[in-house]
Amino acid sequence: MTSNPAHHALFVLSNTLTIVPYIFFLSISKEQTLFAILAFVLYYTFKMTGVFFLQTLPQFSTSALLTISLWIGTVGALFGIFSMVWGSALLPAAALIGLSAAWIPPADLMYRQQAQLQERSLKNDWRWVLIYLVLLLGAIQLNGKWQAVGLFTGYLFLFISAIWQSGAINVRPRGVWQMLKQVTGKQLLAYLLFFGLLFLLRTGRLLKSNTLFEWALLGFMFVFALLMLTVGRRRQFWRMPFYLNVLTFLHGIVGNFLFLFGSVYVGARFGQAALTSHVYIPYAIGLFVSMTFGGFLEKKLGASTIFVHLSGLILCTWLFCFDAMLPIGLAGISFFNGGLNRWLGQRYRVLTAETIENRSLAKYATQSKGSLVHQFLLMGLLFGLIQKAQLPVNAIFRLSSTSGTLHQETIVGVLDPAKWVSAVSIILLFLVAGCYFRKDLKQNPLP
Fold first, then answer.
1. Is residue 365 within 8 Å of residue 53, measured between CB atoms?
2. Does pLDDT of 205 surpass 70?
3. Is the pLDDT of residue 390 over 60?
4. Average pLDDT over residues 232-243
5. Alpha helices of 302-388 — where are they, by DSSP H?
6. CA-CA distance, 159 to 363, in Å (whole number)?
7. Nearest 5°: CA angle at 44, between 227 and 405?
8. 325: which DSSP letter?
9. SS3 for 407?
10. What are the angstrom distances between the C-alpha of 153 and each of 55, 222, 295?
11. What is the mean pLDDT of the chain?
12. Chain segment 256-296, per-residue pLDDT in tens
């Protein structure tokens, strides 16, 4: 077995690009300027829908996708650093970092699976992983423009390190250009539809526009109903096992619940200052423990691994519902959802006959669909609860803060039932999935 250069820079990028820049862009969006809001919307929309763009490509290689993802992120980080002297640079930085955040996780999964097939050993130095995590979270705590400089400088170093460690610096641009020339019309239209709906939803919410918000919800409800009506016919063309699609979809739902609703609820219930102690630090602890000790635990558990992850998610989602246990619940959700993600990656590798690229793309596309569906359904639930409380429609835009015209009791009066409905629904979904697929899960142990 041959040894491969260090993998920790790419590993950290894959696990933080969807979260840490989200915290940064969300924090500046609270300035309520059009510029700050647009930066967040660009990052978030590209991050959530970028994987669907990959489905417009009939064929691409792991090396091409990894190379373009890392270079896009590098350019985005440079724009982010320049934003200290040229404020408008933050917009291309947001779009490029968002697209990189959408593409690097599946590219990293392809890269790791390819290394396993070639019997190459990818090594992670966990001391460096911890240092990177501490520095990135520390940069988020800086004030003013130094926050952007600190964060994007850290990511620039990570991108350059990952390019060097993965050998992407030796990939010729020709293969990357050939990848981008293969876009097909039908899938591109579907991608633009998802992109447009999410852009309307996030822009409407941040600009406090009732019209944009309602159009986004109506558009999603139409698309969602259409998908539900055709799911039976489309299921016969699925290349992945049904239970694998369902669990991947639920993994996306939990990830969105963890950070989107968790941040909104904590901000309203305990104040924005509590986000670090109640959301960000518990998330980071759960993620790091999962990354460092999760693999060892799974070797001990063997075939029972998936049932432990599902049971842990059910328990921790229940703990989230009690304010005193909320940070512990979030840390547990982060840990077990990270373990579920690792288990899913292994299962896609050994149980499908597809190419590495198709397996990874299928996983992350299904996961992103779960996150998007949960987000729109959550907004619809909050919209209904506000109507029931006889509050104005624009009250939905002020739920994440105790400031403004709404009192904390009013905000919590809306968010508390939303918390219970969301948590109980997720628990029931995991219970049903675990019971329904118990036979499939036992009959297909990982090697």
1. no
2. no
3. yes
4. 59
5. 305-320, 326-351, 356-388
6. 24
7. 100
8. G
9. coil
10. 31, 42, 31
11. 78
12. 888 778 888 888 888 877 888 888 889 888 988 887 787 78
Q: Across-strand partners of 121?
A: 3
Answer for the pair 256, 371: CB distance below 8 angstroms, yes or no.
Answer: yes
For the ranges 177-181, 243-247, 333-337, the lowest mean pLDDT is seen at 177-181
Q: Is the pLDDT of residue 18 over 80?
A: yes
* pTM score: 0.77
Separation of alpha carbons 89 and 76, rounded Å: 9
Q: Encoding tokens for residue 221?
A: 């409800």
Q: Which residue has the higher pLDDT, 222 or 24?
A: 24
- Within 157-281, strands assigned E span none
User: Is the distance from CB of 346 to CB of 446 less than 8 angstroms?
Assistant: yes
For residue 336 the two structure tokens come to 């077990």
Residue with tokens 């985005």, as numbered in its chain: 76
Question: What's the angle, vertex CA 85, arms to CA 83 and CA 91, rounded to 5?
Answer: 25
Q: How far apart are CA 326 and CA 145, in angstroms?
A: 32
DSSP letters, 124-146, are --HHHHHHHHHHHHHHHTS-THH
| CA 385 distance to own-chain centroid | 26
**Cα–Cα distances in Å, from 349 out to 116, 223, 245, 292?**
10, 31, 14, 21
pLDDT at 374 over 50: yes
Q: In the structure encoding, which two tokens stand for residue 422, read together?
A: 């969301």
CB neighbours (10 Å) of residue 404?
Answer: 10
Residues facing residue 2 across a β-bridge: 120
Q: How many residues in total does the chain contain?
A: 447
Q: Is the confidence at residue 177, as pLDDT, over 80? A: no
Three-class DSSP category at 2: strand
CB 376 within 8 A of CB 194: no
Can you tell me the distance from the alpha carbon of 164 to that of 348, in angstroms, rounded to the nearest whole number? Answer: 28
> Average of pLDDT values for 396-416?
64
Residue with tokens 């229940």: 318
Residues 209-228: b if buried by 16+ CB within 10 A, e if exposed: beebbeebbebbeebeeeee
Q: What percent of the chain has pLDDT over 70?
A: 73
Number of other residues whose CB lies within 10 A of the CB of residue 112: 20
Please, which pLDDT band fits residue 402 given cuts at 50, 70 and 90?
A: very low
Compute CA distances 353 → 54, 55, 343, 356, whole Å.
20, 18, 17, 9
Q: Which residue has the tokens 């939990």?
A: 254
* Distant-in-sequence, close-in-space partners of 92: CB < 8 Å, separation ≥ 6: 76, 79
Is it the case that residue 19 has pLDDT exceeding 90? Answer: no
